[in-house]
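User: My advisor asked me to double-check a structure prediction for Amidohydrolase before group meeting. I don't want to rely on an old file, so could you generate it fresh from this sequence?
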Amino acid sequence: MAVVDSQWHWYPPAFLDAHIGRTHGPRAVRTAEGYVYEVSPDEVWKYDRRFTDLDHQVRVLDEAGIDMAVVSVAAAGDVNDRDRAEARDLCLLLNEELSRAQATHPGRFAALAHLPLKHPDLALDMLEDAVGRLGLRGIYLPGSIDGMSVADERVWPVYARAEELGLPLFLHPTRSFREPRVTPYKMEVTIGYMFDTSFASMSLIVGGVLDRHPRLKIVHPHVGGTLPYLHGRIDVYRGKGWWPDLDRPFADYLRRMWFDTVCNQPESLSLLADLVGPSRLLFSSDYPYWSTRHGIDLVRKVIPDDQVAGVLGGNAIELLSPAVGAVSSPASPPTPSSAPHST
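Assistant: Sure, here is a fresh prediction for Amidohydrolase from the sequence you gave:
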């Protein structure tokens, strides 16, 4: 039984080093334990070796019995709030470092492309580079694009190309709820993140993206945020004539998506499994933030025995197999000099 962790985070030291010396956030400082990364005065993260040391992460995979991890840089990897040139350079740096992780540890990581989605023309060029030169296996999709909806028509060409390539888009929360009624009470990460991705997925549905691109593969993290609990309420308003182009129940659209299993309540995972079916679930731990062992134990506790193999790895392996063409890690680490330089 192959085990694939579909939400795993690694912070390349080269990316954090690029933020050293900045006079304002996001900025980084080296410490004896690793790095301190300041997004803003009210959001400061400490990244020790669990976050930055790739060899250590491979040992964690081995100890947990995880064969492969789908890796991205979490909210810090969303650089769409930078200007065009900086966003391009940081995404290129991230993609090359993630590709190097794939090449250094063959078969252990399936890395996601980070794209400057605020500039869709540039994002398309960088997607081709990420797939063709770097061999990345999917796309990191932030919950919003510097405040712009992920369903904005300007982003549709990126979705069209992802659909052609058969590449899944892994949604992840970003920083859209940082405001006085949220941050003083530490609700940005605990609750705000869940609404951020819920708004993103719902906008893709009601904004017509899933209908326009029926083969687009979207992965919603954290057992679907709030949507498994609210789909009935949403359907009441669909029945009142809201979103007249939606010709089926809202839950039917959810069943076209995939969901990772990151949560701390068996009841939440059970509810999602009943709603979308185990074939749409992907085991995930959210390491290094959460426990790998807890994530695996939760799946085994909730999912029926005959579906466990699919949830722990089989579903992810199928999802990561592109529908068009073959995407694989390059045999050797990428050479930065061959990267495109359009701005």
